Amino acid sequence: MAPKMTTSERRGYQQICCKNKLMMVIAADQRGGMRRILADKPDAQQAIDEPTLGRIKAAIVTHLANKAACVLLDAVCAVPGVVDSGILARDTGLLIGLDASGWDTDENGYRISRLVPGITARRVRELGGTGAKLMVYLRADRPDANSVNMQTIRDCIAEFSAEDLLLVVEILTYQLEGESNVDYAKAFPGLIVEGTRISLNLGAKVLKLPYPGNADACRQITELCNGVPWAVLSSGVDHEIFLGQIETSMNNGASGVIAGRALWKDCISLNPEKLESRLENVASRRLREIQAILEAHG
To answer: Which of 15, 297, 1 has its CA nearest to residue 168?
Structure first.
């Protein structure tokens, strides 16, 4: 039986959804990925400090996320700044990312997810969060790859349940060293489906998932979820491609969208005027197009 939200979790879930009861969250919790977009060379990327990222994220909130149901931010350089400064709109929900940038690697080359130190369920509540998002890497076809990350999911679910606070579990997978692009692409839908199964078995109540590659895999995920809502993430694909992925996902049981780079990857800039202009005129238009798809399914 699918895990059921408590009243408090349900209230949090309502606050990350639009009036049509579908999730519409702007993801802007990236740090390393955002630096790589802003600068080509490693030295230049390292020179982009946390206050600079914080200012860019504040602009994303002002010119984009305040037009959505919710924003996903990090507590490293974005929160509590956007709350204390009054930038985050009173009607916009706030998910706080638990995961640190990057990952560790074990002796077999498997990815081990990392968390930001000190960002507990209680701290998320203290920061004004509607809830939190946990991202973990899974290779569902390699049981020996997942024990540490599964324990992370298990521990975070238990902690947030004790605090009675919404937790969104995000599952990503990855290509193994020596695995061909063809083999990985062939395995990908099944990896996402089985990663979903693992997460549900551990008690996840809301899921954030990559587009699993086709309509059949979306249907399999929805059947596995059995009422647990799942949102499709953009994985940084171009906006036009993502629109098609959203349509297929929604037609096959998804409960909304948690989108980041597909909206803003070519809009963010170290130039404040360019940043504000492109967020307001380009990213916001893209958001409206996503919202139109959700409205048709609401």
So the answer is: 15
